[in-house]
Amino acid sequence: MKPLVFNGKSGVLHVEYKYDDQARLYLKEGLVEQVETGRLQGQKAAYTCMRWVSISTDFQEGEQDGYTPDPAIDTNAILSYLEKAAKNIEVINKYIPDPDAVFRVDSGRLHRAKKLNAEDFKIALLLDGKRSLSEVLAISGKSELAVLTHACKLILAGVARPAPAKKSMPEKERNDFLHALQDKLTELVGPAGSLLIEDAFSAMGIDAESLAREDIPQLLQEIGTLLDAEEREALAGWSDEYHLN
Questions:
Q1: In this structure, what is the dihedral angle of CA atoms 130, 131, 133, 135, given to the nearest 10 degrees?
Q2: Which pLDDT value is given to residue 243?
Q3: CA distances, 89 to each of 35, 53, 61, 77, 130 (Å)
Q4: Who is most buried in 32, 60, 71, 72, counting CB within 10 A?
């Protein structure tokens, strides 16, 4: 953005956001005249896209039409905020190189930590060692920059640490479990049992080969949403009796 402003460029800066949105910043002679996202425009759109981190950009130079300039948009204020955000993001990238990383919080350290505020604690409660940061973002109600900033503060405070990578089940153990599960579902719902397992894996965003022991409760829960109450009770009883070696 800074070179476009300082060089007095006219055109539109296209911003693609990883999480299902995009923005267009219309510049005329180095001044931002209008900002549009998928749902917003003007100052609200500018404030929204300035808090995106996972983006790609492309500038289309040349006079643009089809937009109405918003005199309330302050180009200098945008640049000032982006400069501060860039410094923040530099630190974030050092400690959180992957937005799909999974962190867990040490509750003991959390309650002893100093210089953490209420918003930091809210994000800490969502870092359960299972959700990725992308999933935390989706349920937090905060901007991506805010979520990553709070997560980074928790990491620097020694409160949040990367969760151990899940280890997939050995092939024989996994196959024995899935065959037994399919047999039980076939008993309950007939040939559609195998489809219920496929739908559950799809809802979890994983495939059978990557199934870990700790994924099994969620797998059974996802399947349970597709059963009636009596079938869910029968599946729960089976899962209590089924023991992994």
A1: 170
A2: 62
A3: 22, 8, 27, 18, 24
A4: 32
- In this prediction, the residues of the chain whose per-residue pLDDT falls under 50 are 245
Distance CA 223, CA 217 (A): 10
Instruction: Please tell me the distance from the alpha carbon of residue 31 to that of residue 8, in angstroms, as a whole number.
Output: 7
Buried b / exposed e across 169-179, counting CB within 10 Å, b at 16+?
beeeebeebbe
Across the strands, what pairs with 28? 31
Helices (H) and strands (E) in the chain, counts: 11, 7
- The Cα–Cα gap between 26 and 33 comes to 6
Spatial CA neighbour of 55 closest among 18, 92, 89: 18
Beta strands in the chain (DSSP E): 11-17, 21-28, 31-37, 55-61, 102-105, 128-132, 160-162
The pair of three-digit structure tokens given for residue 130, joined into one six-digit string: 């299972």
Give the pLDDT of residue 111: 87
Q: What letter would DSSP give residue 38?
A: S
Domain coordinates in residue numbering, the chain? 2-89, 96-162, 171-241
| Nearest of 185, 187, 222, 224 to residue 204 by alpha carbon | 222
